[in-house]
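User: Can you fold this complex?
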Amino acid sequence: MTLRGFLFSLIWLFAAAATPLSAATLAEYKFDDPVMKSDFRSITEEMRCLVCQNESLAGSNAELAVDLRNEIYDMMQAGQTKDDVIRFMVDRYGDFVLYNPPMKPSTYPLWFGPLILFLIGAILLFRTLKRKKQSQETTLSDDEQQRLESLLKQPSNSKDVSK
Amino acid sequence: MKSYLRFTIPLVIFGVIAAFLFKGLNMNPREIPSPLIGKSVPEFSLPLLEQPETMITNKDLLGKTYLLNVWATWCVSCRAEHSTLVQLARTGKVDIYGLNWKDESAKAQSWLRQLGNPYVANIFDKKGRTAIDLGVYGAPETFLVDSKGVIHYKHAGPVTPLLITETLLPMIEKLKQEG
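Assistant: Here's the predicted assembly.
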């Protein structure tokens, strides 16, 4: 296989893996309004199935997931908004049901922790590099400096020695 | 000062990460904190399992501290915990209400005849709608509710004798004294 062919098949593989598995489970829900349809899809894909925790509500075949999908569908058909549905779910199952954690004091470490660790690392790195540079500049005493200069002035006989 | 900082900072960071990871090792990802703690039992009006023509509502449960146990005959862990519930009911220390979840009435009734009935009454939630309001995501689940209908504790998974003696009974005693 050529490299090009290999790369193409790789792309196909990833594309296939990225296709949501929810196509089959969501097909039975009919909406007149395409906006509602996409809302329904995004809600169910952003929520965790509580039975199979690595599946979204959209993709899971667990009985509870089916019940919750039906419930969400009914709520939306009754005219409730996306926010209403999300509040309904969080009131019952907690933030755990959301794949995307909300920003609030208890989740600040989650949101800002990596940034803070990165900044600490950057500061430490910067300081270490700076110190290294300083120490290199000041290590030579006067005697050493003289010796260095005399060595540099010498013709390149050191090359012969190394040979 | 700087020479020892070079060693202590990574060591402290390692210690913190290790402590978090060690805590994580002993945590159960199935135990999801319930947002219903401190809130009232949601409103419901459902038939009794044994007398489908009689409806029971959340208001009928007020006045006494009780346990609300979500169970079903298709649930294997429910069978495992059932004898523990029967024993607890015999002590008479607390009323246990059952929420029979997405089950078949005939099967559920024969289960109670065979294994004993620890429940004061069984609420028959065929569609599972009240279970959703309670944030139930698996059976068995057990809620501790006070006389005013406020949920104080939720346990997901089978009730064990240890859970009863260490956690439930002390909380029940406290609630009885307060209310």
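The helical segments of chain B are 2-25, 76-91, 105-115, 129-133, 161-178. Chain B touches chain A at residues 9, 29-30, 32-36, 102, 127-129, 132-135, 137-138 (CB under 8 Å).
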